[in-house]
Specification:
The protein has about 170 residues and is α/β, with parallel strands linked by helices.
Length: about 170
């Protein structure tokens, strides 16, 4: 398997997309990161191969999302994480466009105890698929905007996009 990458300009800044490709054709998306995102690579690793064609479906779908023309993503995904993190990340997929949930609600949706809120928060913060797996839709128990690895101002922008207040 080969790790491939491309970059795309977006309202959040220049995004780095990486994926894994086994043979020819599209890659399974492994990560989408924004400039300055906590815990994420800012630049591709030296052994990654630049291949915009392999990640073109992801770029196309993100472009449509940012234009307000797409509300869901349909891409092969290959994020790397523990079983616990994978369960939490998968539960993010079920949060509808334009809505939010609390960390406690996300824990319950993933089959975890409400007491696992801190661990759930850690998993959400480590989500490698920014935007694609909508961690920006998770709020604090009071409904307040809480941490977002790419910055709270970007979280607010994404929520405003989804609520239709940008267009």
């Amino acid at each position: 398997m080969t790790t491939v990458f491309t970059m795309m300009d977006s309202p959040l800044g220049r995004l780095l997309l990486s994926g894994v490709r086994d043979g020819d054709g599209p890659a399974a998306l492994a990560a989408v990161t924004a400039p300055g995102q906590k815990g994420a690579l800012a630049e591709p690793a030296d052994d990654w191969e630049y291949d915009p064609d392999a990640l073109a479906p992801a770029v196309d779908q993100l472009t449509a999302y940012f234009a307000g023309e797409r509300t869901t993503f349909d891409l092969p995904l290959a994020p790397v994480g523990t079983d616990f993190r994978q369960r939490i990340w998968k539960a993010l997929d079920d949060i509808p466009y334009g809505t939010t949930v609390t960390y406690g609600q996300l824990a319950a949706a993933a089959g975890e105890s409400p007491r696992a809120v801190r661990a759930v928060g850690g998993a959400v913060g480590a989500n490698p698929l920014l935007i694609i797996r909508p961690c920006h839709r998770v709020m604090g128990a009071s409904g307040a905007l809480t941490g977002f690895a790419a910055g709270v101002e970007r979280k607010r922008w994404l929520l405003d996009l989804e609520n239709g207040t940008l267009f």
